[in-house]
Design a protein that fits this description.
- Residues 7-81 form the ACT domain.
- Pathway: Amino-acid biosynthesis; L-valine biosynthesis; L-valine from pyruvate: step 1/4; Amino-acid biosynthesis; L-isoleucine biosynthesis; L-isoleucine from 2-oxobutanoate: step 1/4.
- GO terms for molecular function: acetolactate synthase activity; acetolactate synthase regulator activity.
- This protein is α+β, with helices and mostly antiparallel strands and 178 residues long.
- It folds into 2 domains: 4-83 and 160-177, ACT domain (Alpha-Beta Plaits, 2-Layer Sandwich); 85-151, ACT-like. Chain A, domain 2 (Alpha-Beta Plaits, 2-Layer Sandwich).
- It is 33% helix and 39% strand.
- It has 5 helices and 9 strands; from the N terminus they run βαββαββαββαββα.
- The strands form 2 sheets. Strands 5, 6, 7, 8 and 9 form a 5-stranded antiparallel sheet that branches. A 4-stranded antiparallel sheet has the order 2-3-1-4.
Length: 178
Amino acid sequence: MSPTKHTIVALVEDRPGVLNRMASLFRRRGFNIDSIAVGRSETPGFSRMTIVVDGANTMVEQVRKQLDKVVDVVKVSDITGQDIICRELALIKVKSTPANRSEIMQIVDIFRAKIVDVASDSLTVEVTGDEEKVNSLYNLLRAFGIKEITRTGRIAMTRGGLATATELQSAKESKTKE
């Protein structure tokens, strides 16, 4: 079975060491994590992780099941085949001169990105969108010279209903009974 890029979302208790334990499971299985993004969730005391990894479906499913057994993990889902919303944020510092500044600004405008910093020799661009949009803008700006880039990696969630605090608490309680 050929490797596929998987998007795994985990709701975890906001405690030190959780990220390390989760990343170690992927490392032990020989997976390279393409990106990992962690931030607070809608429920105080919980964080949501989005992990993008390449791997065969069966291997990723095994790792997902092992992640579900980590004490601080409340819920883990491989949302790869679902109807999802994905976004990434990038900050791109581009070399600029007075002669090419307006051309860069036009390209940025086409991508509905923003210029967030202007210096005498550079512009810093903020772009948000799917990975393809970020890559496309980056590839166009490369012609001017990239001084620096930073990317968040993918963040994602399924479309539709929202998990309530009660559902999250139920998931946590059922896990502690196991």
